[in-house]
Amino acid sequence: MNSTENNSEQSNQQIAENQPSKTNSDINNFPSDEEVDLNYKNKSEVAKGGILGLFIGLAVIVPGVSGSAVAIIFKMYEKLLYAIGNIFKKFKKCIKFLFPILIGVLAGFIFGFFGVRSLLNIIPFIVICLFAGLMFGAYPAVTDQIKGTKPNAKYILLFILGLAIPILISCVSVFSDVAQHSLANLKFYHYILFVIIGFLIAITQLVPGLSATALLMSFGYFTPLMNSVSLTNFKENPTIFLVYLCLIIGFIVGLFVVSNALNKILNKYKIPAFYCIAGLSLGSIITMFFNPEIMEIYTSWSNGGLALDISIGILVFIIGIVISYFFVRFERKKGSNK
User: CB count, 10 Å around CB of 219?
Assistant: First the structure.
């Protein structure tokens, strides 16, 4: 009897040893293809997709705004990466998910260009404070992804690296005195450069914390591109449409390539990746108050307006935090009830 029991125990132990054990990385793995559900359950989720797109569209106009950080708040980041990366493989499924987001992107870009951009010309510091408050209030949604993990030297280093990247980019754009480049009389290599810039802008839209505006400033093309949108300029310099086309081509290619790469990275290294993302997100909030455009505002305060701007700026910053954190709490509560 004892011999039989021992044989049985040995057999069970051997089976257990042959079974793959669940490691920490297995538990924290990014969802596999089979687990990603791209269907909107109700109109509220469709609206969230539109709001996400709105922030992605605004991100090109307002320094420091991160559409992908909003995707994390709404628990849509993983789905967004999957849908973009698999759009050619599962076109119908992915385009149904992306359609409300694309509508939001268009609305955000138009509103950002003609609305927010105008406000930035009138009350720039106050507008920046509002968006900075919204981003800061949303920051806990990013850190939720690493909640419960024990920080080690590697994780802390990744966080510091992420924090440093947007700050370094901003330093380049502030201190290098980058010249504003003309968009007229361009050479062939300029169009190749615009494809590359479009690719890099795609990265800023998929990696939380990176700013498309800061990137364009560091290349010296932000103001020229913003000023290029006018009927007079279209008539005088029709080749500007070729510039737009190159940017769009680079952007689309970048979205597809980077989303696939991020899918793979997050599938294998979700926790380390989010430590880096947490640093990137915090760094981008800091750079909202440290970039070439806002440095000009600080200089203009020598002519007056300092006290009023800072007073209203602090108020709208707090309002932004409260509004954004309310949505974070709402999403947390919604997630815990599932």
Answer: 18
Chain segment 249-263, per-residue pLDDT in tens: 999 999 999 998 988
Could you give the CA distance from residue 139 to residue 135 in angstroms, rounded to a whole number?
6
- Contact between residue 285 and residue 136 where contact means Cβ atoms under 8 Å apart: yes
Whole-angstrom Cα distance, residue 221 to residue 228? 10
d(CA 45, CA 42): 6
What CA–CA distance (Å, rounded) separates 214 from 172?
Answer: 9
User: What is the rounded distance in angstroms from the CA atom of residue 186 to the CA atom of residue 333?
Assistant: 53
DSSP three-state, residue 290 = coil
CA torsion through residues 122, 128, 129, 130, sign: positive
pTM, two decimals, is 0.73
Percentage of residues in the chain having pLDDT higher than 70 = 86
pLDDT in tens, 41-90: 888 889 889 988 888 888 777 766 777 777 887 788 888 998 998 888 88
